[in-house]
Structures are given as structure tokens and as C-alpha cells.
Design a protein that fits this description.
Organism: Actinidia chinensis var. chinensis (Chinese soft-hair kiwi)
InterPro entries: WD40/YVTN_repeat-like_dom_sf (IPR015943), WD40_repeat_dom_sf (IPR036322), WD40_rpt (IPR001680)
Protein name: WD repeat-containing protein
Strand order of the largest sheet: 14-15-16-17-21
Radius of gyration: 20 Å
Keywords: WD repeat
Length: 378
């Protein structure tokens, strides 16, 4: 398929009776995909089969998020309302709940497990994040006061076993030591850009953070210790986490005990794209062919050379597949305009997306319809 081609005829996965909200793909069983919807159901699909494998009726409330248990994908966690439930895939037909957690006070937006399958994090509308010990099946810690608005997204840092990163509709990215329950770094995207780096969004929306992604543990060495941020102003920004931590250490000698707060503009990719504070940045914005409305979700590619692409979806009814490995250290505009590997136009806004390890039918997209779309990225 030619770079930049627009695909218009996806495969359609039918099974939900209301809007599809989330999707996850198995790493252990390529082609196995689970999707959730506002109908309170989880649908299971095998890309080798034409129809839905089976449907789990979790409840009457919309399902907001899904995640597998790393190392044991027979276990799936589902968030609905303020509750997290765990199910055994093999007993899906009986819908027997293995575990249930009701620690969040507000509606949960995202759940995720750490790579060691010790902890689960649940981010909610109240701005809180509950860290649940899934081995002891109890609440481990509440991360509070990091966000002043809805906490939309959460991810564990696989290379730092006691650290988690959260994002919210207060335009903040917060890095936490969850063993201590307090933040050690706050990145504020609402702070105006002063370095002329061109990271301002195309649209007038605030830079709310709708979604974040970090590389899984097996590709960290290749892609770097980064976090990708999908922002409300349409920008998809790559942040070099270790650069952030280095900035904290450089300030700690003069201001010990202070939580560092700054404007994020970094990338592990280029030493030539630094702002006036000496920090690196990579902003995938409309000037490079990016989103013209809020970027709603983001993920690393799991097919082919894992992590080669950053995939983002937006409220502009499009999915962008970014070949961020092509980013020019020299900042050559002509080269960087070729970062878009594939642009997919949809008829609906994007709720969520994920990729699979397969060579074909490897991009799964949940838009605001009840039909899940499947594309091939070659």
C-alpha cells in the first residue's frame, strides 16, 4: 500500500448494540480482539472468523475501559461506572466474576495493569487514581490532588516499577511515585509555548489530555523511555520521560522537596529540537499533516517492527499513522512532512484504537458507531 493512502473499505465487526468505546488486542493470540460498548457488553472477535465469537454481558452500564492481565491473558479487567471487574476468558459464557473492586468514587475512564501483574490503576472523573494490589486483592494507594479535573488516562512506566503517569482534562500530565502516593513531576500543557517551536494546535480547543501511551516493556530499548500524549488542541506530543527526570534532578539542589512543573517539549529523537530550557521536543501537529480537531486516543504499533509507528485518532474523524522514526534531527520541514505513513478518513469521531501483532487486519478502530472497523497497515 502506498504511503499516505486513504483507506475507505474497512472490515466491519458487528456485535455491539450501542457505541463501541474501547478495544484491546491479544499479544499472545494474534488476531484475538476484545471490544467494549455502551451496551454493557464485551465482544470477542477472532480475525480468522467472520462473526463475533461470543458476547459477555457485563451489566447495564456502559463499559469505559478494558485491559488484559499481563502474562495471563485468560484474565480480562473491565471498568463500568465506578467498578472494576475481572473475568476468566475461558468461563466467559457464564460471565462469572473473579474479582470486583469498588474503590473509585466517580466514573472510571481508564484502567491498566503494570507489566508485572502486581497492580491495577483506575483513573476517574474526580481526578483520583486508585492503585489496586491485584495479588492481595485490596486497595494499595489513592493518588489524589494531582489533577483538578477529570483524570482521563493512566499508564504504568514499565522501566520504573513504582512509578505511574496520569493525564487529565486540566491539561496536566503528572508523574507519581505510587509507593509514596505523591507526584514528583507535573507537566502543564496550558502554559503558553514561548520557544516558537510550532507546537500550537490547529483548533482552538484547550490542550486537555485525552489519552497517553507508553511503550511496552519489550520495546522500550528500541523506541526510548517516552510518553505520547493526545491533546485536545489536536497535537500529538512525544515526551522524553528521562529528560523530565533529569530536569528535576538539576533543580533539586537549589529547590529541594519541590514538585517540578514545566511546559513539556521533549523527544528522545533529536538533540537539535530543543527549546530555550535545553529540552527536546517532538510535536506531531497539523503543520505535519496532523489532526485539525482534538486528538482523542494514541497507541504504539504492535505489528511488524514494533513501535515504529505512533497511531492517533481524533475528533476530526481521522486516524493518523505516524512513522516517527523518520523524524529529521535537522528539523528539515520537507522531510518531516513525510512523517504521515497513512491517513485514514472515517465518517465518525474516534473513541479508541489499538493494533495487533498480525501482518494484516492489524488496526482496530472504535468510532462513535456500534460497528468496529478493522484496517490493514502495511
Amino acid at each position: 500500500m502506498a504511503k499516505g493512502a486513504i483507506m475507505t473499505d474497512p472490515r466491519r465487526l458487528r456485535g455491539h448494540k450501542a457505541t463501541a468505546t474501547c478495544c484491546i488486542a491479544s499479544r499472545d493470540r494474534p488476531g484475538l480482539v476484545a471490544t467494549s460498548g455502551e451496551d454493557g457488553c464485551v465482544c470477542w472477535f477472532d480475525m480468522r472468523c467472520k462473526d463475533v465469537l461470543f458476547v459477555m454481558h457485563v451489566g447495564d452500564s456502559p463499559i469505559s475501559s478494558l485491559c488484559f492481565k499481563p502474562g495471563n491473558e485468560d484474565i480480562i479487567y473491565v471498568s463500568s461506572g465506578s467498578e472494576v471487574k475481572a473475568f476468566d476468558v475461558h468461563s466467559a459464557a457464564s460471565w462469572k466474576i473473579l474479582e470486583s473492586y469498588n474503590y473509585n468514587k466517580e466514573e472510571i475512564n481508564q484502567i491498566t495493569c503494570n507489566s508485572r501483574s502486581c497492580f491495577l490503576a483506575a483513573a476517574d472523573d474526580g481526578g483520583d487514581v486508585k492503585i489496586i494490589d491485584i495479588r492481595q486483592q485490596c486497595l494499595y494507594k489513592t493518588l489524589r490532588a494531582g489533577h483538578t479535573s477529570i483524570c482521563s488516562s493512566v499508564q504504568f512506566l514499565p522501566w520504573r516499577p513504582w512509578e505511574v503517569i496520569t493525564a487529565g482534562l486540566d491539561s496536566k500530565l503528572v508523574m507519581w511515585d505510587f509507593s509514596k502516593g505523591r507526584p514528583y513531576k507535573i507537566v502543564d500543557f496550558s502554559v503558553p509555548d514561548t520557544d516558537g517551536g510550532g507546537s500550537a494546535g490547529q483548533c482552538l480547543n484547550p490542550a486537555f489530555v485525552h489519552s497517553i501511551a507508553v511503550p511496552e516493556v519489550d520495546i522500550v530499548d528500541k523506541v526510548g523511555k517516552v510518553c505520547v500524549v493526545a491533546r485536545g488542541d489536536g497535537v500529538v506530543e512525544v515526551i522524553d520521560i528521562e529528560s523530565e527526570l533529569a530536569a528535576i534532578k538539576s533543580k533539586s539542589s537549589s529547590k529541594p522537596g519541590k514538585t517540578s512543573q514545566s511546559r513539556a517539549k521533549h523527544s528522545a529523537l533529536s538533540s537539535d529540537t530543543e527549546n530555550q530550557n535545553g529540552r527536546k521536543k517532538l510535536c506531531l501537529d497539523y503543520s505535519l499533516g496532523g489532526h485539525t480537531a482534538a486528538a482523542s486516543c494514541v497507541a504504539f504499533s504492535m505489528f511488524g517492527e514494533k513501535g515504529k509507528y505512533i497511531i492517533s485518532g481524533g475528533n476530526d474523524k481521522s486516524v493518523k499513522v505516524w512513522d516517527w522514526s523518520r523524524y529529521s534531527n535537522a528539523g528539515e520541514t520537507s522531510t518531516n512532512r513525510d512523517l504521515i505513513h497513512l491517513n485514514i478518513n472515517l465518517s465518525k469521531k474516534v473513541n479508541w484504537l489499538c493494533s495487533t501483532p498480525a501482518d494484516s487486519e492489524n488496526l482496530i478502530v472504535c468510532d462513535t458507531s456500534k460497528v468496529v472497523k478493522v484496517y490493514t497497515v502495511a
